[in-house]
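fyi for ur records
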Amino acid sequence: MPDKATVTELFDLAIAAEKAAEELYHKLEAMFAHHREVADFWSKYATEEAKHALWLKRIRDTSSPEQLSAPADPRVLQDARKILQFSIENRLQDIENLEDAYQLVIELENSETNAIFEFLVNHFASDDKTQCFLKSQLNEHIARLTTDFPTQFKSAANRRAVEVLKKDSK
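which gave:
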């Protein structure tokens, strides 16, 4: 039986994925609170994920009822559902140091989450100027992992030396 999910449901899944990413970054912020520059970096990333969710809400809210009730692209819908099966808590339990966190974030930022964001922007943003702006924001967001990460932690060896803040030391 074919999936009857609509574009509205796809937007809802994509917004939930952005909120889950925001939550992940807030948790990383707490895990590395003992290194202020790193915690601040994760905090800024959380803020950007919240903005992504807001942008998707705005696009959804300005789309026509016909667009929103149309069947969702099955491949993109499947990817969105897969993303939300990603357990933040399970993945965070595996993080022992900043390198583990950094690799998790690289994986997340290169996952379907951003591909779905771009798909929705390409197909539902109201005009070319908005599309260009949002795609630019997304590309800058991903690039900041390498360009804006605190200088002293740009090497994997230095990141491995920074252990997570243990729960009992908070």
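The chain is about 75% helix and 0% strand. thats all i got for now
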